[in-house]
Task: inverse folding
């Protein structure tokens, strides 16, 4: 390690995090179904996960809905005897002011960390100086520790190279980064400079969890953990236990299944409902539909999702609950 910066005051734990899908009532306005959300949160905790509280569909949620979901997540953790369970809430706004407000909302609702995308609506205006100022200003104005979220495909092409991320890593309230850009080179460059306690680096999906860990990364944040939480947690545990060949085999199976999540929010939510809904105690498949104007998958896509994920069912069912 080459950096001499101090360890962060609050270090984000290593492990597997999940951007929890939002669940809605089958009504015209699709109000958030908080009862179903509580059941899903409990199911995921039992699956051995840490999690990113509400970021998966935060763009479709009001500020009040975001706050309430963080509260529900915290209640689920407390009820399962995990009061210190780390919760990471989505706090992304297009302005500095909005992001600060969302960070304060998340903190007051019980979040431990905030996951923050870069501003991206006017991409040509998002210069390096604008990016640095944005993240530093938000981190200055809240005590909620910030995790940078690098996702250029969803951010109008706005990307952050490893030098920019390294500059931000030096802020005392910026504790890590989620790399959904899929750039493994950023992992190795950043982990060469910073140890986990200084600036944690996570893969943005589980299909390259092992490459991230080999590069000294700290884990991953992955949508497929909504569907097969125990399997992804098992993959991480195999690596930590030094069972490399078994980890490699499971990594391939997880990567094959994750193809469905790469297809978007509707296939991901269908998979959660189909494979995990009954285990979580949620019976109505419409609870897992996307919020309008986005549409659920059709029959052809649903059949494809089932086919590419089916091989993980037996593995998932063979693993014990963590709680």
Result:
């Amino acid at each position: 390690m080459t950096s001499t910066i101090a360890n962060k005051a609050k270090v984000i734990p290593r492990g597997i995090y999940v951007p929890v899908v939002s669940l809605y009532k089958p009504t015209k306005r699709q109000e958030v179904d908080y009862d179903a959300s509580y059941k899903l949160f409990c199911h995921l905790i039992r699956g051995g996960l840490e999690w990113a509280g509400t970021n998966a569909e935060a763009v479709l949620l009001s500020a009040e809905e975001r706050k309430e979901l963080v509260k529900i997540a915290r209640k689920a953790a407390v009820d399962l005897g995990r009061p210190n369970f780390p919760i990471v809430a989505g706090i992304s706004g297009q302005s500095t002011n909005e992001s600060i407000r969302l960070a304060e909302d998340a903190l007051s609702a019980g979040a431990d960390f905030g996951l923050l995308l870069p501003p991206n609506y006017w991409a040509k205006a998002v210069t390096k100086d604008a990016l640095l100022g944005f993240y530093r200003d938000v981190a200055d104005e809240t005590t909620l520790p910030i995790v940078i979220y690098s996702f250029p495909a969803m951010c109008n092409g706005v990307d952050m190279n490893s030098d920019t991320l390294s500059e931000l890593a030096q802020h005392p309230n910026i504790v890590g980064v989620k790399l959904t850009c899929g750039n493994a080179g950023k992992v190795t460059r950043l982990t060469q400079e910073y140890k986990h306690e200084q600036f944690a680096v996570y893969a943005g999906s589980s299909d390259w969890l092992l490459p991230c860990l080999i590069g000294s990364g700290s884990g991953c944040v992955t949508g497929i953990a909504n569907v097969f939480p125990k399997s992804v947690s098992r993959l991480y545990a195999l690596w930590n236990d030094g069972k490399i060949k078994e980890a490699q085999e499971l990594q391939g199976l997880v990567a094959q299944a994750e193809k469905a999540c790469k297809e978007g929010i509707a296939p991901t939510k269908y998979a959660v409902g189909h494979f995990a809904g009954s285990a979580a105690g949620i019976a109505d498949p419409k609870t897992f539909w996307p919020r309008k104007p986005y549409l659920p998958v059709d029959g052809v896509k649903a059949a494809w999702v089932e086919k590419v994920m089916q091989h993980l069912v037996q593995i998932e069912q063979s693993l014990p609950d963590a709680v």
About this structure: The first helix runs from residue 34 to 46. Residues 15-243 form a domain with the TIM Barrel fold (CATH 3.20.20.70).
